[in-house]
Design a protein that fits this description.
57% helix
Length: 197
């Protein structure tokens, strides 16, 4: 029964993602509707949804000067922070899909800002949907592979590690864009997860 439920949710997820792609919209313009039940999975998924919404609006409408803005010599630019959030999104979705984070393989294609933004948002959405459908988060371990072998971490580390870190960095992007003269859309309400008309 659990397998059928997960398969059903996965098929709905594929359909929803296909609709987003067809309409040209990225996930998290607004947050998805809340779950009817409070479970470990729905709670963790809602954290990822909150991250996705914040990231969407922190990165929406960034200009070249916003991406390159650095407030000081030893501070990352918005572009560098966005690269880091993209990497974190891969760790989050890889835990959900039970994929090893292979540190021995380097992504060869250089992505544009828009490509990174889209992939990051899709990763958050996919992870949220898979994790939200589960009653047992212990299955979603983070596994890193390097030249020294593999290391595995429980889902707890996903919460206080990549998820919390990405929320932190989305806030940095929002702050830096304000400092570079391009604050994010004030109609995006992070409390409700909706956009005012």
């Amino acid at each position: 029964m659990k397998t059928i439920r997960l398969l059903f949710i996965f098929l709905i997820s594929i359909s929803a993602n296909a609709q987003d792609v067809k309409s040209g919209q990225l996930p998290y313009y607004e947050m998805p509707e809340t779950s009817e039940k409070y479970t470990a999975g729905s709670t963790a998924a809602r954290m990822i949804d909150g991250l996705g919404f914040r990231y969407y609006w922190a990165t929406q409408g960034l200009r070249a000067e916003d991406l390159s803005y650095e407030p000081g010599n030893r501070v990352r630019s918005s572009s560098q922070i966005i690269d880091h959030i993209y990497d974190l999104s891969k760790v989050i979705v890889n835990a959900a899909t039970k994929t090893v984070n292979d540190r021995t393989v380097v992504e060869k294609k250089k992505l544009t800002f828009e490509e990174k933004r889209k992939r990051t948002l899709v990763n958050f959405r996919k992870a949220s949907e898979i994790i939200g459908a589960s009653d047992d988060l212990s299955a979603f371990t983070i596994v890193f592979k390097s030249e020294n072998g593999e290391r595995s971490y429980p889902f707890w580390n996903n919460i206080n590690g990549p998820i919390a870190d990405a929320i932190w960095h989305a806030g940095q992007v929002a702050l830096l864009r304000r400092a570079s003269g391009n604050p994010f859309n004030g109609k995006a309400n992070v409390f409700t997860g909706k956009v005012s008309p």
